[in-house]
Write a structure and sequence with these properties.
5 strands; about 10% strand
């Protein structure tokens, strides 16, 4: 029975990504055999996907070097082939892949650096909603604030690491030899967000991070305030809320 187009397409994908030979009988031999023809597609596919990863993870590539990065990318795309027609979706699981990649075991900070880079990439391509109308907040009785739930800008990603990932990332934003970073100097809490056309990466104090993390989990304002004060008793909640609205970190609210 002759396979249909869908079956042939699936067999072609398996041949390219997994060296599956199911497709071989359906290929016409010319000057070169089926295996050699498929290697051309495998090579081009691997090169394109490696280039896509390098575009998203330039700091990771600089940290490990071209050869190691290409080796890692090759193992990654074979294990995690694209599942979307949009190349910008490819690479989302690369940080988790690095966390379990034995050759990178001694670079314990590398997965969190990759998470920051994926957050930057994701923020760049995130939608840009209408900002929250400040009058909405002004019209609500302050006694009801504790029950409010806020929506964060869709580009926001909060990252908490035991490593100084932002310092590492910052050190590699300019060409040339980066400054040395002491990876044992402590962790950081970070927010990635796009404001207008610019993606920014900010180091957050513990109280602000805890506040936004709570709101990101759709917890009510009262819980977010409690989390912020547990993290840092000196947190100025009104100033923090005002800044989050003013800077469009918060873009909507829900009254319970």
């Amino acid at each position: 029975m002759t396979p249909g187009l869908r079956e042939l397409q699936q067999a072609f994908a398996r041949a390219v990504f997994n060296n599956d030979a199911t497709l071989h009988p359906h290929l016409l031999d010319g000057q070169f055999g089926a295996e050699r023809l498929l290697r051309v597609y495998q090579h081009n596919t691997g090169a394109n996907l490696t280039d896509a990863l390098a575009a998203v993870y330039p700091v990771v590539k600089r940290l490990v070097g071209d050869g190691f990065f290409d080796f890692s990318a090759d193992r990654y795309w074979h294990a995690h082939p694209p599942i979307s027609g949009n190349i910008h979706d490819f690479g989302d699981s690369f940080p988790d892949f690095l966390a379990g990649f034995e050759p990178a075991r001694t670079l314990a900070y590398l997965p969190d650096v990759a998470r920051l880079e994926w957050a930057w990439h994701r923020a760049f391509h995130a939608p840009d909603p209408e900002p929250m109308d400040r009058q909405q907040l002004a019209d609500i009785d302050p006694a009801e604030y504790g029950n409010l739930r806020f929506r964060l800008h869709p580009s926001v990603c909060l990252i908490k690491s035991v490593w100084p990932v932002l310092r590492i990332w910052e050190a590699h934003q300019q060409p040339g030899e980066p400054n040395l970073i002491d990876i044992d100097q402590g962790g950081e809490t970070t927010m990635v967000i796009r404001r207008g056309l610019e993606v920014v990466v900010e180091r957050l104090p513990p109280g602000e991070y805890a506040f936004l993390e709570s709101l990101a989990r759709s917890e009510p304002m009262a819980s977010a305030c409690e989390a912020a004060l547990i993290a840092d008793m000196t947190t100025d909640i009104p100033a923090l809320l005002n800044r989050a609205v003013e800077q469009k970190t918060l873009v909507g609210l829900v009254r319970l």
